[in-house]
Design brief:
Elements: H1 26-33, H2 39-55, E1 63-67, H3 71-82, E2 88-93, H4 102-113, E3 117-121, H5 125-139, H6 144-161, E4 165-168, H7 172-175, H8 222-227, E5 231-234, H9 244-253, H10 263-266, H11 279-291, H12 295-306, H13 311-321, H14 327-337, H15 341-350, E6 357-360, E7 363-366
Parallel strand pairs: 1-2, 1-4, 2-3, 4-5
Antiparallel strand pairs: 6-7
């Protein structure tokens, strides 16, 4: 039976989440320890990492930063350049033109205009869509393969250009309690063990697809990362106010465009996440069906941990908006995959988690309330 964290509203259905005896999720436990963090010591560690980049500079670049043009990557790129005084090469794993929205293209253009060199890392659209379809059919997650390409992009460029220092954003072990990556510090070398991307494209490849079609989805091997002296770092671990709201405020002040849709259409109370394409809204609805929570639960849980929102307010917002997805996004999704609405609805129901969803008066609802009492 699903349980909610007694401090935030994170459920224990997220893969790898284990609550403690008090019913508190790992992310809340880490946040409780935050006041004891020696941020000056972390800054010294970060300066040493920056020096590693300078001493291993290649082609004039000290490091790589994976970017989408969104709130986290915009702040990361500018922090690396303006605070650490490094010369970064940005790597953008681009969506195919059929999926990319104008807002996403404008945000990438904005980041370039802020004065950065950037490499576009663009897998073939035909392979991209086919792997997405396999992910949808097998896992109810059509963005599974897209995440693989995203996380493989900067490390792949690192090998090609011999730039060993790579910066990512937040450590998911600390922010959401995803402990399978094996580290709760700034070391991101094992990010490939994350829940979504573990196993690589072999987990979604159709039998007749040649392996060479999926190279851009494959994270470098342990041997390759070790031999190349690759060092992948969660930059957010070293920045005290690194988070959704602060990063968005910073990036919006530097030209980032956000969504203007109401939260009941997009299942998002901020409008400043996952800006480069819109199918993520459909994917969050799938996550809601499979795991009982979507983006809003993640958003409000972080604010509760940071002390900027009460748990009661988090519950209210989650009830109103979590898992919402306007029909126009489903329409677009169906056109993209050339399927009917009936086929889409059939796939949704195939992945509905009957352990946490029950019917009440003919309607599906979650079987447990946020205070962990059964509804049905």
């Amino acid at each position: 039976m699903m349980r909610y964290c007694t401090k935030c509203v994170q459920p224990d259905t997220r893969p790898g989440i284990v609550f403690n005896e008090q019913g508190v999720c790992p992310a809340c436990t880490f946040m409780e320890q935050a006041p004891a963090v020696d941020w000056e010591q972390r800054r010294r560690e970060l300066e040493a990492i920056a020096e590693y980049g300078r001493s291993h500079s290649s082609h004039g670049y000290d490091c790589l930063v994976g970017v989408s043009g969104g709130k986290d990557s915009t702040r990361q790129a500018m922090y690396v350049r303006d605070e650490l005084n490094l010369n970064p090469l940005l790597v953008n794993c681009g969506y195919p033109p059929e999926q990319l929205v104008d807002r996403g293209a404008e945000n990438i253009a904005n980041l370039v205009e802020l004065g950065f060199d950037m490499i576009s890392y663009c897998p073939a659209p035909q392979t991209w869509k086919r792997l997405q379809w396999e992910g949808l059919q097998r896992y109810g997650n059509f963005l599974k393969s897209s995440e693989m390409a995203l996380y493989a992009s900067a490390p792949r460029v690192s090998l090609a250009y011999q730039i060993p220092l790579v910066f990512l954003g937040e450590n998911p072990a600390v922010t959401v309690g995803e402990l399978c990556i094996g580290t709760t510090d700034g070391n991101a070398n094992m990010v490939k063990n994350g829940n979504t991307i573990a196993g690589g494209p072999d987990t979604v490849m159709p039998p007749d697809m040649p392996v060479n079609k999926t190279i851009l989805y494959r994270f470098p091997s342990d041997e390759e990362t070790e031999n190349s002296l690759m060092r992948i770092v969660y930059l957010g671990y070293y920045i005290e106010d690194f988070g959704k709201v602060k990063n968005a405020e910073f990036s919006m002040a530097h030209g980032m465009k956000v969504r203007t849709d109401p939260p009941e259409d997009i299942g998002d109370i901020t409008g400043h996440e996952a800006l480069d394409e819109d199918f993520v809204i459909v994917n969050q609805m799938f996550k809601y069906i499979k795991l009982g929570f979507g983006k809003v639960v993640d958003q409000v849980s972080e604010e509760v941990r940071r002390g900027t929102m009460t748990r009661d307010e988090a519950v209210r917002l989650a009830r109103l908006y979590d898992g919402k997805c306007a029909r126009r996004y489903v329409d677009s999704f169906c056109r993209y995959f050339k399927i009917s609405h009936e086929e889409f609805d059939s796939i949704v129901e195939r992945f509905r988690n009957r352990d946490i969803w029950k019917k009440k008066n003919g309607q599906w609802c979650l079987a447990v309330d946020f205070d962990n009492t059964p509804i049905i």
